[in-house]
Design brief:
Helix content: 25-40%
Radius of gyration: 28 Å
Low-confidence stretches: 1-28
Number of helices: 20
Distance between the termini: 85 Å
Shape: elongated
Strand order of the largest sheet: 10-9-8-11-12-14-13
Strand content: 5-15%
Structural class: alpha/beta
Amino acid sequence: MKPGAALLAIFFLASNAGCRRASPPVPRERPNVLFVTIDTLRADRLGCYGHAAAVTPALDALAARGVRFATAIAHVPLTGPSHASLLTGRTPLGHGFRDNGGYVLPPQVKTAAEDFGQAGYRTAAFVSAFPLDRRFGFDRGFETYDDHLPKGNDRRRTPYVERLADATTDAAIRWLGAPPAASVSPFFLWVHYYDPHAPYEPPGALAERFRAAPYDGEIAFVDTQLARLLRALSAQGVFALAEDGRYVHTEQSLVLRKDHPDTLHHWVLVYGAHWVWKSLAGMTEAVRTGREAFQAEFGRPLWAYLENEPADQLLFQQGMTEFSRLNAQPLADALDLRDARTVVDVAGGQGSVLRAVLDRNPGVDGVLFENKTVLESLHADPRTAQLAERFRLVAGDALEAVDCPADIYLLGHFLHLFEDDGALRVLTNCAAAAPAGARIIALERVIADGPKDTFGKMLDVMMFCVTQGRERTEDEFRALFERAGLRWAGITPTTCDMSLIEGVVPPAS
């Protein structure tokens, strides 16, 4: 780095999303922190510092809505020592790191990553050049330190091995998309770009465009990488680009905030989880053989995998809870309880649907039938205590038995997890515990025949790969319920994209 040449950007990101109600987001006490450093970047080559020919819209927009320093001077014109100062708050005399190579950050000098880690933050770094290799101590305090650089001298003939900005950005985005071990923890993320460093050879079309000013072309390339994620999201309606160049929230982005009362943050992360996408990668083989892609990839079914992966299991439970909460009220509004006195919510997760049903029907008692692991988290839940006289927790496995006599059995977004034989076992187990006339009601998406309902049909393929489950048409639901010995009672639509699919337990013959 050169004196006066370093631009330091610290972005405070609200990684959580808000949602359907237009209530203001709740301020986070501990924001996520994104720390971006760009090697050998001269301030006088940026639009926000007056360079008319600059192509740096992302950096200019950040400067416009943040704090822009009129003067910023690096302590030393070298990548390693300069970053040592940034990460420790000390000059080279204080941290002892005086040149690229040959020095190691002393263990007694505390780093920003160590401070963030002790404060409960997740920490990760993605660097782009050899002077920041972990061998020099820069990885201290980072749980993830990605210094995976190309082997040997790179094609740009720099003195040090370098990773281009697009590859570094890809790695950082993959980390952001992976479910963390403690999903409630904020993060400190350092992303380092080396591209403006000599020799100046901007990639692709930028080489021709900036033939007379290749240094500016390299800066434009880095700026493009900073803008990639926001631009991609805005194209999908998640965030919007305002006239002043700022990215602002839309209704879609608000539902991603964890601090919004109707958040879908974890539900979205489930769809982007590594175990989902690795399963989808095996789709061709799954279609060819009929075997579950998840088990082929991980050597065991999803449920066995989650039992041994607590972080993924927690993410899955949180995601399903958010999805249930999203649909709970529309389903409760459409549900006709008639003369029912007891409702069992089979595999009802955190009980969002059951609570909505009980709130709407004060004379009805409820049973939440779930596995032991899920129920353990509910005993201390104040919402459970509020309904204690009408709300019982019963541990069990619906694939084995449902030992809860009741008037109504709810199966919320549960049957689609299974192929027909598994779904049939759940229905027959409910019917075996039920008196004649009891109603068994599945809360599921009903996919349409023909070319419509693209999402439902894509979800059907995903369920096949991950759990060997499936989405179903009305005719397929009817055939399934009748195979379970139930009298078909039809389908009731709701104001959400889920429907009530109902069968009635007949009298014993």
